[in-house]
Amino acid sequence: MRTLSTLLVTTSGLVLAATGGTTAALAQTGSTGQSVIAGTTDAPAATTDPDAQDDATRTVGTAADASSEDIVVTGIRASLQSAQTLKRDNVAIVDALVAEDIGKFPDNNASEALARVTGVQVGRYRDEASGVLIRGLPNVQTTLQNRDIFTADGRAVALQDFPAQALSKVEVFKATTATNIEGGIAGLVNIGLRRPFDFKGFELAGAIRGTYNDESRKYDPIGSVLVSDRWDTGIGEIGALLNFSYTQSQYLNSIRYQGFQDYLLPDQQVLPASVGRQFTYPQDIGLFYARGIRKRPSLNGSLQWRPNDNLEVYVDGLWQAYRNTRGDDFFGIPIQAGSPTLRDLVLTADGKTPASFNAQLGIVNGPSKQVGVEKTDTYQGAIGAKYTSGNAVFTTDLAYTKSIVDNVYYSFDTQLVRPIAVQVGLNVEGSVDFTPTGLDFNDPASYNFRGFYDQRNRATGKQIQWQGNMVLDTGSELFPEFQIGLRYANRDASAQSGDRYAAFPQLGIPIAQVPGVNAGGVIDAGFRGSDTQKFRSYYSISANGVLDNITGIRDFVRGGLVRSGADAGTIATWAPAIPGYNAVNAFSANEVTYAGYTQLKFAGEALGIKVDGVIGTRIVITDNILDGTSAQNVSTNGVPSTVFVPVRANNRYVDILPNINLTFHLTDKLQFRATRTEALSRPGFNQINPALTIQQGTIGGIISYTGSGGNPNLQPIRSDNYDASLEYYFSRTGSMSVAGFYRKIDGFISSFGTQEINPTFGPILVYRPQNAGSGQIKGVEAAFTTFFDFLPGFMRGFGIQANGTYIDGSQSLPPVPGLTRTTGSLPGVSKWSYNVIGLYEAGPASVRLAYNHRSANVDSYTAPGVFATAYSAPVGRLDLSASYDVMPNATITIDATNLLKQPYKSYVEAPAYPRDVRYEARIFSIGARLKY
Question: Which of 25, 316, 691, 783 is the most buried (most CB within 10 A)?
Answer without folding.
Answer: 25
